[in-house]
Design goal:
It is a single chain. The protein is an all-alpha fold and about 250 residues long. The mean pLDDT is about 85. The protein has one domain: MetI-like fold (Orthogonal Bundle). The longest helix has about 40 residues. Helix content is about 85%, strand content about 0%.
């Protein structure tokens, strides 16, 4: 029974995805018929132009610039977020004081802070990394802090009775207890960091997919707008689906 479960699970997921994709394409076609070519291109035309975009030599330097800035920002946001969240979670008073401040800062529209980031870092990869990390770090801090807070006290007491050292305590108690919720924070941070990186490229950059997208919007080139949007959605959706599957697996093991 257990050997057949993964196959049945993936078949069910594949069927759900096929139904969702069919409905999405149908709604897209209806929206195209209603709005016309001025509003958006048809699904088939977008797929064809996306293939041409992937085959063009102009696309890949911009894609590399975006991916490089995004990965650096994601590593910085993840590292800083997990470390800060763990520290605030273990020190309960600091966490209680910091949480409303972090939520308040996170509620501020990040675009209003972008001129300040440009003054500090200039127009380049540094500004893209800073703006991307700024979007992703606070959710990771909050999820990690709550994960540490929610560790059952009996786990810590049992570890003390067993006289576990710092490393065995972290490996066998703290890590398994906090990993599911921390990973959820990383998944949310992944999406927000990507959004921040693209926004930075749209408003103040000379390279990247966001830069290409902004130029296409200025020229009202719907072929480029729709193809770049489709490629971004495909990348983000695929990555998030993989992370979501792992997230569910981690939560089932708790």
């Amino acid at each position: 029974m257990s050997a057949r479960f993964p196959a049945a699970f993936f078949r069910s997921r594949a069927f759900d995805f096929a139904v969702f994709a069919a409905l999405f394409l149908a709604l897209w076609q209806v929206a195209h018929e209603w709005g016309g070519e001025v509003a958006m291109t048809a699904p088939l035309d977008t797929l064809v132009f996306s293939a041409k975009t992937l085959a063009s030599a102009e696309f890949w330097p911009h894609a590399y610039a975006t991916l490089r800035a995004f990965l650096i920002a994601l590593v910085l946001a993840s590292t800083a977020g997990v470390l800060a969240g763990a520290a605030l979670g273990f020190h309960r008073l600091s966490g209680e004081v910091s949480e409303p401040i972090l939520v308040g800062v996170y509620s501020i529209p990040k675009v209003t802070l972008y001129p300040i980031i440009l003054l500090f870092f200039g127009i380049g990869i540094e500004a893209k990394v800073a703006f991307g990390a700024l979007h992703g770090v606070i959710p990771i801090i909050l999820f990690t802090m709550n994960a540490v807070r929610n560790i059952k006290p009996v786990y810590i007491k049992t570890a003390r009775v067993m006289r576990l050292g710092p490393w065995p305590l972290f490996r066998h108690v703290l890590l398994p207890a906090t990993l599911p919720e921390v990973f959820t924070g990383l998944r949310v941070g992944f999406a927000l960091t990507l959004i921040g990186t693209l926004l930075s490229e749209m408003f103040g950059s000379r390279s990247g997919i966001g830069f290409q997208l902004m130029n296409a919007i200025g020229l009202h080139n719907m072929d480029i707008i729709m193809s770049l949007t489709f490629l971004l959605v495909a990348f983000a959706g695929t990555a998030n689906a993989a992370m979501l599957a792992l997230d569910h697996r981690l939560h089932r093991r708790v």
